[in-house]
Amino acid sequence: MVDEASDGDAMLAAERLKLLQDVGILRISAQAYQLKSELLRHAQIPAKAENDALHIAVAADQGMDYLATWNCKHIANAVTLPRVYDVCRGFGCEPPLVCTPYELMGADDERI
To answer: Residue 1 above 80 pLDDT?
Structure first.
């Protein structure tokens, strides 16, 4: 979400926003909001991580293959992900593969 990229240190936020200039923004459908609620209810994502659940829901609803995140507390962890995947599939959406940017790009990649 663009508003999250704007948070924090002003210089770093400006860099993040610059990177997002050429990135397409996914729409949030009513189905994504429903899936977010299911994830909060059944995947043990805490209410304070509502935006994290919405990120997963939008990616699943839009048929994204991957969701890269640095959030290993609420999203990219071995305890939460099996539940997330089950909830998405039970809702009729194939979940994205959730991983960190390092996992997505390859830890040996010199660009990282």
So the answer is: no
